[in-house]
Amino acid sequence: xxxxxxxxxxxxxxxxxxxxxxxxxxxxxxxxxxxxxxxxxxxxxxxxxxxxxxxxxxxxxxxxxxxxxxxxxxxxxxxxxxxxxxxxxxxxxxxxxxxxxxxxxxxxxxxxxxxxxxxxxxxxxxxxxxxxxxxxxxxxxxxxxxxxxxxxxxxxxxxxxxxxxxxxxxxxxxxxxxxxxxxxxxxxxxxxxxxxxxxxxxxxxxxxxxxxxxxxxxxxxxxxxxxxxxxxxxxxxxxxxxxxxxxxxxxxxxxxxxxxxxxxxxxxxxxxxxxxxxxxxxxxxxxxxxxxxxx
Length: 295
What we know:
By secondary structure, this protein is α/β, with parallel strands linked by helices. It has ten helices and eleven strands.
C-alpha cells in the first residue's frame, strides 16, 4: 500500500519520551498502513540500545541514524528526504496523541489551496498551550496583549500568524520547493521561517489551524534553561534579519508578552516563586539583546 503521510520524529537523548510517543501514535493511528513512521536520531549517546528497543517494540518504524547533530532542522531534513509519502508530518518526541489526527491532516491537505496544517496543543488534558503565534512582522502592543484572546477563542489568521511547530503536517512537494528547514537555525523559530517562505512563494495558499484536533505537548514541567532561551532569541533575530523584519520590534514584542504574562499571573494569583524566577531571568536575557548592533 502506498504511504499517504510520513511522520518524522527527531530524537536526541529522547529515550524517556520516544516509546510513549510511538505508543500514542500507534494507538490513535486512524489511517492504518497509509502511515509511514520515521525516527531520526541526532547522534544520541545511547542510540544503539534505544534503536534496538524501537525495532523490537515497533518493527514497522523506520530508524535513521544521523552521524552528526546538525540541529533540529537538519535532522528533520534527513527524515524528510528518507520519506516516501506526499505529505510529511513533523512531531516532537514529547508529543502525545490523545485522539486520531492523521485523517484530519490528510482531509485538510486534500484541498489544493492548503499547504500546511496543525492542531490544538495542550500541556495537560485541561490546559491549552499556544498553538499559533503572531507573525513578527505584524507585532505591536495590541498583539502582545491580544494573543491570549486569540488563543482562547481559537482565532487564527494565516496571513498574520504562524502555526506551532511541535506537530504539524505539510505537503512535501511545496516544502521541498522552498528548501525544507533552514539548517542555519540550530533550534527554535523554524516554523516562523517556514511560514514566511510559504507566504512568499505561495501567497495564494493557506495554512490551516484545526482546533478540534487536539494533542499533548509535555512542556508543563520543563525547567527554564538560560542557554536554550538565549538560543531561542538568537534564532528569532536570525529569522527576522533574514526576512528584513525589525529586530527592535521583535524584542519590544517579546518583552511585552512577558510583562503581560507576569501581570496576568499577579491578577490571577498564580505568581509562584518559579514564575517570578522565570520572568526575572527571561527579562534579563531579553534586555541583554537591547544593544546598538541589533537593528
